[in-house]
Amino acid sequence: MEVITLIQGDDMSDLTPLFLVHAISGVALPFLHLHSLSDDDRPVYGITSPLHCPGGDVLKYPTSLKDLAAFYLDGIRDIQPEGPYLLGGWSMGGMIAMFIAQMLEARGEEVYKVIMIDSANPEVFPKFKSTEEHWEFAKTTFDRTISAGGLQSHDGDGADDFPVSPAITSNCEMDDYIATQSRHSSVWKSPSSPTISSARSSVASIFDSNSPFTSLGSPLSDGFLTDDSGCDSDCGSDCDEPPAMEEFLRHIKTHIHRGLDLISSVQLGDLFTPGTKSDFDAVLIKCTAGPIDVAEEYKGNSGAQLIETVMREQNMRWNPSQFRSFQSIPFSGDHDAAFQPQFIGELSSILRECIEDVE
Prior knowledge:
- By secondary structure, the protein is α/β, with parallel strands linked by helices.
- It is built from eight helices and seven strands.
- The chain has helices at residues 65-79, 92-106, 131-148, 166-171, 174-183, 243-264, 302-312, 341-355; strands spanning 4-8, 18-21, 44-47, 85-90, 111-117, 281-287, 325-331.
- Helix 1 (65-79) packs across helix 2 and helix 3 crosses helix 6.
- It is globular, with a radius of gyration of 19 Å.
Protein backbone atom coordinates (compact mmCIF):
# COMPACT_ATOMS: atom_id res chain seq x y z
CA MET A 1 0.00 0.00 0.00
CA GLU A 2 1.38 3.39 -0.99
CA VAL A 3 0.76 6.69 0.79
CA ILE A 4 -0.69 8.23 -2.38
CA THR A 5 -2.49 5.87 -4.77
CA LEU A 6 -4.35 6.48 -8.02
CA ILE A 7 -7.89 5.24 -7.37
CA GLN A 8 -9.54 6.26 -10.65
CA GLY A 9 -8.82 8.15 -13.85
CA ASP A 10 -5.66 8.48 -15.94
CA ASP A 11 -2.50 9.81 -14.33
CA MET A 12 -1.45 11.14 -17.74
CA SER A 13 -4.60 13.28 -18.06
CA ASP A 14 -4.24 17.04 -18.48
CA LEU A 15 -7.10 17.63 -16.02
CA THR A 16 -6.28 18.86 -12.51
CA PRO A 17 -5.97 15.85 -10.17
CA LEU A 18 -8.17 15.51 -7.10
CA PHE A 19 -6.36 14.42 -3.93
CA LEU A 20 -8.58 12.91 -1.20
CA VAL A 21 -7.19 12.53 2.32
CA HIS A 22 -8.14 9.66 4.63
CA ALA A 23 -10.46 9.93 7.62
CA ILE A 24 -9.54 9.06 11.22
CA SER A 25 -8.85 5.40 10.32
CA GLY A 26 -5.88 6.48 8.24
CA VAL A 27 -6.90 4.40 5.22
CA ALA A 28 -8.07 5.56 1.80
CA LEU A 29 -9.90 2.31 1.01
CA PRO A 30 -13.42 3.83 1.27
CA PHE A 31 -12.62 6.14 -1.66
CA LEU A 32 -12.53 3.06 -3.89
CA HIS A 33 -16.33 2.90 -3.54
CA LEU A 34 -16.77 6.21 -5.36
CA HIS A 35 -18.41 6.13 -8.76
CA SER A 36 -16.56 7.75 -11.64
CA LEU A 37 -16.09 11.44 -10.90
CA SER A 38 -15.25 12.41 -14.48
CA ASP A 39 -16.07 11.44 -18.06
CA ASP A 40 -12.58 12.55 -19.07
CA ASP A 41 -10.46 10.33 -16.82
CA ARG A 42 -9.56 13.02 -14.29
CA PRO A 43 -7.01 11.42 -11.95
CA VAL A 44 -8.28 10.94 -8.41
CA TYR A 45 -5.75 9.98 -5.75
CA GLY A 46 -6.40 8.57 -2.30
CA ILE A 47 -4.01 9.42 0.52
CA THR A 48 -3.34 6.76 3.16
CA SER A 49 -1.46 7.29 6.41
CA PRO A 50 2.14 6.01 6.23
CA LEU A 51 1.29 4.03 9.35
CA HIS A 52 -0.53 1.58 7.05
CA CYS A 53 2.34 1.44 4.55
CA PRO A 54 5.59 -0.56 4.57
CA GLY A 55 7.84 0.76 7.31
CA GLY A 56 4.93 2.36 9.16
CA ASP A 57 5.80 0.63 12.44
CA VAL A 58 9.06 2.56 12.67
CA LEU A 59 7.61 5.84 11.44
CA LYS A 60 8.27 8.91 13.56
CA TYR A 61 4.68 10.10 13.56
CA PRO A 62 4.10 13.86 13.09
CA THR A 63 3.41 15.76 16.30
CA SER A 64 0.81 18.14 14.84
CA LEU A 65 -1.90 18.12 12.19
CA LYS A 66 0.09 20.76 10.33
CA ASP A 67 3.19 18.56 10.27
CA LEU A 68 1.13 15.63 8.96
CA ALA A 69 -0.28 17.88 6.24
CA ALA A 70 3.25 18.98 5.33
CA PHE A 71 4.28 15.34 4.93
CA TYR A 72 1.38 14.70 2.55
CA LEU A 73 2.08 17.92 0.68
CA ASP A 74 5.56 16.68 -0.21
CA GLY A 75 4.01 13.59 -1.78
CA ILE A 76 1.37 15.61 -3.61
CA ARG A 77 4.01 17.87 -5.13
CA ASP A 78 5.99 14.86 -6.32
CA ILE A 79 2.92 14.00 -8.42
CA GLN A 80 1.81 17.55 -9.23
CA PRO A 81 4.68 20.06 -8.87
CA GLU A 82 2.57 23.12 -9.74
CA GLY A 83 -0.98 24.33 -9.21
CA PRO A 84 -3.77 24.88 -9.42
CA TYR A 85 -4.56 22.25 -6.80
CA LEU A 86 -7.80 20.44 -6.05
CA LEU A 87 -7.98 18.95 -2.55
CA GLY A 88 -10.49 17.09 -0.44
CA GLY A 89 -10.94 14.73 2.46
CA TRP A 90 -13.38 12.93 4.70
CA SER A 91 -13.75 14.10 8.33
CA MET A 92 -10.18 14.39 9.66
CA GLY A 93 -9.05 14.30 6.03
CA GLY A 94 -10.91 17.51 5.26
CA MET A 95 -9.07 19.22 8.11
CA ILE A 96 -5.74 18.00 6.73
CA ALA A 97 -6.70 19.12 3.22
CA MET A 98 -7.40 22.60 4.57
CA PHE A 99 -3.95 22.73 6.20
CA ILE A 100 -2.38 21.63 2.90
CA ALA A 101 -4.25 24.38 1.05
CA GLN A 102 -2.99 27.02 3.48
CA MET A 103 0.60 25.83 3.01
CA LEU A 104 0.30 25.89 -0.77
CA GLU A 105 -1.04 29.44 -0.72
CA ALA A 106 1.79 30.50 1.59
CA ARG A 107 4.20 29.22 -1.05
CA GLY A 108 2.50 31.25 -3.76
CA GLU A 109 0.73 28.28 -5.35
CA GLU A 110 -2.86 28.44 -6.59
CA VAL A 111 -5.48 26.31 -4.89
CA TYR A 112 -8.74 26.07 -6.74
CA LYS A 113 -10.97 24.32 -4.23
CA VAL A 114 -11.02 22.32 -0.99
CA ILE A 115 -13.88 19.83 -0.61
CA MET A 116 -14.60 18.58 2.92
CA ILE A 117 -16.87 15.62 3.60
CA ASP A 118 -18.41 16.38 7.02
CA SER A 119 -15.23 17.93 8.38
CA ALA A 120 -15.43 20.36 11.28
CA ASN A 121 -13.05 23.26 11.86
CA PRO A 122 -10.31 21.72 14.05
CA GLU A 123 -9.52 25.07 15.68
CA VAL A 124 -12.68 24.78 17.79
CA PHE A 125 -12.08 21.27 19.12
CA PRO A 126 -11.31 21.08 22.85
CA LYS A 127 -8.22 19.42 24.29
CA PHE A 128 -8.64 16.21 26.24
CA LYS A 129 -8.79 16.80 29.97
CA SER A 130 -7.03 13.56 30.83
CA THR A 131 -5.37 10.47 29.42
CA GLU A 132 -8.46 8.50 30.42
CA GLU A 133 -10.75 10.78 28.42
CA HIS A 134 -8.46 10.44 25.38
CA TRP A 135 -8.50 6.65 25.81
CA GLU A 136 -12.30 6.50 26.00
CA PHE A 137 -12.80 8.71 22.94
CA ALA A 138 -10.28 6.64 20.97
CA LYS A 139 -11.84 3.32 21.95
CA THR A 140 -15.33 4.46 21.03
CA THR A 141 -14.11 5.90 17.73
CA PHE A 142 -12.32 2.65 16.91
CA ASP A 143 -15.45 0.59 17.59
CA ARG A 144 -17.55 2.95 15.50
CA THR A 145 -15.04 3.02 12.65
CA ILE A 146 -14.79 -0.76 12.39
CA SER A 147 -18.56 -1.15 12.61
CA ALA A 148 -19.53 1.56 10.17
CA GLY A 149 -16.60 3.30 8.60
CA GLY A 150 -16.78 2.12 5.01
CA LEU A 151 -14.19 -0.64 5.53
CA GLN A 152 -16.61 -3.53 5.80
CA SER A 153 -18.06 -6.29 3.73
CA HIS A 154 -21.66 -5.63 2.72
CA ASP A 155 -22.89 -9.18 2.31
CA GLY A 156 -22.25 -12.69 3.45
CA ASP A 157 -19.04 -13.41 1.59
CA GLY A 158 -17.65 -9.95 0.96
CA ALA A 159 -15.43 -11.21 -1.86
CA ASP A 160 -16.47 -8.75 -4.53
CA ASP A 161 -17.13 -5.50 -2.73
CA PHE A 162 -14.60 -5.29 0.10
CA PRO A 163 -11.63 -3.20 -1.04
CA VAL A 164 -8.89 -5.34 0.48
CA SER A 165 -5.51 -3.67 0.72
CA PRO A 166 -2.51 -5.19 -1.06
CA ALA A 167 -0.88 -5.79 2.32
CA ILE A 168 -3.72 -8.07 3.35
CA THR A 169 -3.96 -10.04 0.12
CA SER A 170 -0.21 -10.61 0.05
CA ASN A 171 0.07 -11.87 3.62
CA CYS A 172 -2.88 -14.17 4.12
CA GLU A 173 -5.06 -16.49 2.09
CA MET A 174 -8.14 -14.77 0.67
CA ASP A 175 -10.38 -17.67 1.70
CA ASP A 176 -9.28 -17.22 5.31
CA TYR A 177 -9.79 -13.48 5.07
CA ILE A 178 -13.32 -13.82 3.67
CA ALA A 179 -14.16 -16.41 6.30
CA THR A 180 -13.03 -13.99 8.98
CA GLN A 181 -15.26 -11.25 7.57
CA SER A 182 -18.19 -13.65 7.50
CA ARG A 183 -17.66 -14.49 11.18
CA HIS A 184 -17.71 -10.77 11.98
CA SER A 185 -20.57 -9.91 9.63
CA SER A 186 -22.43 -7.97 12.32
CA VAL A 187 -19.35 -5.90 13.06
CA TRP A 188 -18.75 -4.99 9.46
CA LYS A 189 -22.31 -4.04 8.51
CA SER A 190 -23.31 -0.50 7.70
CA PRO A 191 -25.21 1.27 10.49
CA SER A 192 -27.84 2.18 7.94
CA SER A 193 -28.13 -1.29 6.40
CA PRO A 194 -31.50 -3.08 6.51
CA THR A 195 -30.23 -5.38 9.26
CA ILE A 196 -29.71 -2.42 11.57
CA SER A 197 -32.45 -0.24 10.17
CA SER A 198 -33.47 1.21 13.51
CA ALA A 199 -30.03 2.53 14.27
CA ARG A 200 -29.46 6.26 14.58
CA SER A 201 -26.75 8.14 12.76
CA SER A 202 -23.41 6.64 13.69
CA VAL A 203 -22.21 10.12 14.57
CA ALA A 204 -24.38 9.69 17.64
CA SER A 205 -21.95 7.11 18.97
CA ILE A 206 -19.12 9.62 19.37
CA PHE A 207 -19.86 9.68 23.08
CA ASP A 208 -22.65 7.12 23.39
CA SER A 209 -21.08 3.92 24.66
CA ASN A 210 -24.50 2.23 24.56
CA SER A 211 -25.20 3.06 20.94
CA PRO A 212 -26.03 0.16 18.58
CA PHE A 213 -22.62 0.58 16.97
CA THR A 214 -20.33 0.48 19.98
CA SER A 215 -22.39 -2.29 21.55
CA LEU A 216 -21.71 -4.50 18.54
CA GLY A 217 -18.09 -4.72 19.62
CA SER A 218 -15.12 -5.31 17.37
CA PRO A 219 -12.27 -7.81 17.21
CA LEU A 220 -9.83 -5.69 19.21
CA SER A 221 -12.03 -3.26 21.07
CA ASP A 222 -11.96 -4.88 24.50
CA GLY A 223 -8.21 -4.56 24.81
CA PHE A 224 -7.82 -1.09 23.44
CA LEU A 225 -4.28 0.17 23.79
CA THR A 226 -2.60 2.82 21.73
CA ASP A 227 0.32 1.20 19.98
CA ASP A 228 1.40 -2.40 20.23
CA SER A 229 -1.46 -4.42 21.64
CA GLY A 230 -2.79 -7.37 19.75
CA CYS A 231 -5.86 -9.07 21.17
CA ASP A 232 -6.95 -9.00 24.75
CA SER A 233 -6.62 -12.38 26.42
CA ASP A 234 -10.35 -12.55 27.12
CA CYS A 235 -11.43 -11.89 23.54
CA GLY A 236 -11.79 -15.60 22.88
CA SER A 237 -12.20 -17.07 19.41
CA ASP A 238 -13.50 -13.80 17.97
CA CYS A 239 -9.90 -12.61 17.97
CA ASP A 240 -8.77 -15.42 15.70
CA GLU A 241 -7.83 -13.00 12.92
CA PRO A 242 -5.40 -13.79 10.12
CA PRO A 243 -2.10 -12.13 11.15
CA ALA A 244 -2.24 -9.43 8.48
CA MET A 245 -5.85 -8.58 9.36
CA GLU A 246 -4.96 -8.27 13.04
CA GLU A 247 -2.07 -5.97 12.13
CA PHE A 248 -4.35 -3.89 9.88
CA LEU A 249 -6.83 -3.37 12.73
CA ARG A 250 -4.02 -2.58 15.16
CA HIS A 251 -2.78 0.13 12.81
CA ILE A 252 -6.27 1.61 12.56
CA LYS A 253 -6.51 1.62 16.34
CA THR A 254 -3.14 3.32 16.70
CA HIS A 255 -3.95 5.89 14.03
CA ILE A 256 -7.24 6.81 15.68
CA HIS A 257 -5.53 7.38 19.03
CA ARG A 258 -2.83 9.55 17.48
CA GLY A 259 -5.21 11.31 15.11
CA LEU A 260 -7.52 12.39 17.92
CA ASP A 261 -4.51 13.76 19.77
CA LEU A 262 -3.48 15.82 16.70
CA ILE A 263 -6.99 17.21 16.22
CA SER A 264 -7.43 18.12 19.88
CA SER A 265 -4.04 19.88 19.86
CA VAL A 266 -4.97 22.38 17.13
CA GLN A 267 -5.23 25.87 18.60
CA LEU A 268 -6.92 29.02 17.39
CA GLY A 269 -4.65 30.59 14.78
CA ASP A 270 -2.86 27.36 13.81
CA LEU A 271 -4.91 26.97 10.63
CA PHE A 272 -5.94 30.52 9.78
CA THR A 273 -3.81 33.56 10.54
CA PRO A 274 -6.12 36.22 12.04
CA GLY A 275 -6.91 38.98 9.57
CA THR A 276 -6.12 36.93 6.46
CA LYS A 277 -8.42 35.48 3.81
CA SER A 278 -7.92 32.36 1.71
CA ASP A 279 -8.06 32.82 -2.05
CA PHE A 280 -9.79 29.53 -2.87
CA ASP A 281 -13.27 28.05 -2.79
CA ALA A 282 -14.32 25.80 0.09
CA VAL A 283 -17.12 23.24 -0.08
CA LEU A 284 -18.52 21.40 2.94
CA ILE A 285 -20.55 18.29 2.11
CA LYS A 286 -22.65 18.22 5.27
CA CYS A 287 -24.13 14.96 6.48
CA THR A 288 -27.70 15.47 7.65
CA ALA A 289 -28.88 12.01 8.73
CA GLY A 290 -29.95 11.27 12.26
CA PRO A 291 -29.79 13.02 15.63
CA ILE A 292 -26.54 13.47 17.51
CA ASP A 293 -26.78 12.60 21.18
CA VAL A 294 -24.32 12.75 24.03
CA ALA A 295 -24.49 9.72 26.30
CA GLU A 296 -25.90 10.37 29.76
CA GLU A 297 -22.53 9.96 31.48
CA TYR A 298 -21.09 12.75 29.30
CA LYS A 299 -23.90 15.27 29.78
CA GLY A 300 -21.65 17.31 32.04
CA ASN A 301 -18.64 17.11 29.73
CA SER A 302 -18.24 20.52 28.13
CA GLY A 303 -15.99 19.15 25.39
CA ALA A 304 -18.52 16.50 24.41
CA GLN A 305 -21.31 19.06 24.37
CA LEU A 306 -19.26 21.40 22.19
CA ILE A 307 -18.49 18.70 19.63
CA GLU A 308 -22.16 17.68 19.60
CA THR A 309 -23.09 21.29 18.82
CA VAL A 310 -20.43 21.67 16.12
CA MET A 311 -21.45 18.44 14.38
CA ARG A 312 -25.05 19.66 14.18
CA GLU A 313 -24.18 23.01 12.61
CA GLN A 314 -24.61 23.61 8.89
CA ASN A 315 -21.14 25.15 8.54
CA MET A 316 -19.43 23.12 11.30
CA ARG A 317 -17.69 26.31 12.56
CA TRP A 318 -16.08 27.19 9.23
CA ASN A 319 -16.28 30.95 8.69
CA PRO A 320 -17.62 31.51 5.13
CA SER A 321 -15.95 34.93 4.96
CA GLN A 322 -12.56 33.21 5.32
CA PHE A 323 -12.71 31.91 1.74
CA ARG A 324 -13.15 33.20 -1.79
CA SER A 325 -16.47 31.37 -1.65
CA PHE A 326 -18.01 28.88 0.75
CA GLN A 327 -20.81 26.41 0.13
CA SER A 328 -22.41 23.92 2.50
CA ILE A 329 -24.13 21.15 0.54
CA PRO A 330 -26.58 18.89 2.40
CA PHE A 331 -25.97 15.15 2.02
CA SER A 332 -28.43 12.55 3.29
CA GLY A 333 -25.74 10.19 4.55
CA ASP A 334 -24.40 10.03 8.09
CA HIS A 335 -20.85 10.75 9.14
CA ASP A 336 -19.45 7.24 9.47
CA ALA A 337 -21.49 5.54 6.75
CA ALA A 338 -20.96 8.18 4.06
CA PHE A 339 -19.28 5.68 1.72
CA GLN A 340 -21.78 2.87 2.18
CA PRO A 341 -23.77 1.58 -0.83
CA GLN A 342 -26.97 3.38 0.12
CA PHE A 343 -25.17 6.76 0.11
CA ILE A 344 -22.26 6.39 -2.29
CA GLY A 345 -24.27 7.28 -5.40
CA GLU A 346 -25.42 10.58 -3.92
CA LEU A 347 -21.98 11.38 -2.55
CA SER A 348 -20.33 10.60 -5.88
CA SER A 349 -22.78 12.88 -7.69
CA ILE A 350 -22.08 15.75 -5.30
CA LEU A 351 -18.32 15.34 -5.68
CA ARG A 352 -18.66 15.13 -9.44
CA GLU A 353 -20.61 18.40 -9.53
CA CYS A 354 -18.04 20.05 -7.26
CA ILE A 355 -15.18 19.42 -9.68
CA GLU A 356 -16.85 19.41 -13.10
CA ASP A 357 -15.97 23.08 -13.71
CA VAL A 358 -12.28 22.51 -12.93
CA GLU A 359 -10.07 21.99 -15.96
